[in-house]
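Hi R.,

Here's the input for the EPS complex you asked about:
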Amino acid sequence: MLRFSTAGESHGESLVAMVSGMPAGVPVDLEFVNRELWRRQKGYGRGGRMRIERDTAHVLSGVRHGKTIGSPIAMTLANNDWKNWTEILPVEEGDPAKHKAVASPRPGHADLAGAIKYDFKDARYVLERASARESAARVASGAFAKLLLKELGVGVASHVIRVGKAELLRPATWDEIVALQAKDEVLLNCVDAESEAAMKAEVDAVLRTGDTIGGVFEVIVHGLPPGVGTHANWDERMDGLLAQAVMSLQAVKAVEIGRGVTAAESLGSAVHDAIGYEGDGGFTKFSREHNNAGGIEGGISNGEDVVVRGYLKPISTLRRPLASVNFETREPVKAAYERSDVCVVPAAGVAAEAMVALAIARLTIEKFGGDSLREMQRNFNGYAEQIRAY
Ligand code: EPS
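And here is the predicted structure with EPS in place:
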């Protein structure tokens, strides 16, 4: 089974990622992995930390001579900021006078619930791990899933469809969304210049007021054959796995598959994707009137693009902080503020691409098996032939 885990604190020495269950023989393009990390760092509304970091994956194992070898892939991603924190957050006991306690919890962050749970009178240790910095390790892991999927002709890409009240007002094509990944300037990762300008204006407004702003990103999986995932067991359904994968990202508060939200207020006749048989032979000749199901029916891919949206709350660290309480004195104070991003919707979309790629790669490996890429491609191509003749 494809699995991954991460370790590391935001201001510790490094983030750590480990991916196991990858078939052997997948070509590894480290420039691609690092480009993915770069994309996550970008976007209009990012804070000062991103000027310090230059996220790069240092691969320790599982890749030799440019290909995966079937053993666990271990990576570290150094935190450049660590040099400023060595005395504040030492592994050893260090000098307590140099520790930098976070005296009041930020509403919306893990600070208070985590401090109560782990018995700290300080939010420092909780926020260090709860920080969205951890998503860099997920992006490095997801890059490997994308490299595998690419060998099967499956692509994963994201774009931003809303920032605050500004939304993308027209449909986006797959080619437009993929083209965003090649851009060297990332603004709000929106396919439409006019909508992107409106999104930027939303960010500019909150920059002035010391507030933060959320939005919605959409991740598309393109080229996946029908039949991945299953209706047979609740914990193997593709929609359930994608929902958990995306919901687990920092600041995501809702996940939608296809037209999930508006479907609830519409009639069945308007929602479901009528079936035809005039397709131009992707994997099969079956075709659909539209893709409101977001490419998944009964927990199984149906051959259309898989469409997953993540709804991001505004970042909870505010330059003009909300009311809070001091951990020690219990007196009312303002919530802690060191520095923060104002808008991270594009970056969250990149992290969600990684999570979606990992979930889809897991199900793909489960369906097509394979200790090696060659074995997996053989099974994949055999299945493609089988369903073409269905
Ligand atoms: C982040 C690094 C963090 C924050 C942000 C994400 O850096 P620092 O805490 O040093 O400023 O910019 O964290 C959060 C959004 C959060 O809620 O904690 C990163 O690498 O993405």
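One thing worth noting: Residues 10, 47, 49, 81, 131-133, 136, 315, 317, 339, 341, 344 surround EPS (CB under 6 Å).

Cheers,
M.
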